[in-house]
Design goal:
Order of helices and strands: HHHEEE
Helix content: 40-55%
Radius of gyration: 27 Å
Largest sheet: 3 strands, antiparallel
Distance between the termini: 95 Å
Strand order of the largest sheet: 1-2-3
Mean pLDDT: 87
Low-confidence stretches: none
Number of helices: 3
Length: 153
């Protein structure tokens, strides 16, 4: 009888399954968190890039450009896009190409001194409420992307 009990205690069959299950309880949440952190960083980088592209568009479409975008205008004519809707469309298109859906109320182009002349500054602010990809309790976070540039044309 004593040999039977000692033999049972030394039996290792099935221990790998139990160890793997316990390890997966730790590894799976870590992988989910890693995925969520990567997607958060990707979203932040995308919004920064989109705001830079919006600033680039605004910089090259100042009052001297034939298709002006922003407040003001040349002596001959006013800007056809005084609100900066074309800048917003550019930011929406760039963010949309990477799988992020923005609306125009999330994007705010701002011209310093309300002028769109060469040498003036333009800033594009993008605000995006981040939604987690996994159903993990995650606090509500708003990601902001901002870029500033000087109008050259």
């Amino acid at each position: 009888m004593r040999c039977l009990v000692q033999g049972t205690l030394r039996d290792n069959r099935g221990s790998n399954v139990i160890e793997t299950a316990l390890a997966m309880l730790v590894v799976t949440p870590m992988l989910i968190c890693l995925f969520e952190i990567c997607m958060f960083c990707y979203t932040m980088a995308t919004l920064q890039y989109a705001s830079r592209q919006g600033v680039q568009y605004a910089m090259t479409h100042g009052t001297d450009a034939p298709n002006c975008s922003g407040p003001g205008g040349s002596v001959v004519s006013a800007c056809p896009d005084s609100t900066g809707a074309n800048v917003q469309k550019m930011v929406i298109a760039v963010a949309g190409s990477s799988g992020h859906t923005l609306t125009s109320n999330m994007i705010q182009p701002v011209w310093k001194n309300n002028a769109n002349n060469p040498g003036d500054l333009v800033t594009v602010n993008v605000s995006y409420p981040y939604k987690p990809y996994t159903h993990v309790p995650f606090p509500a976070i708003t990601i902001n992307g901002t870029a500033t540039g000087q109008i050259v044309y």
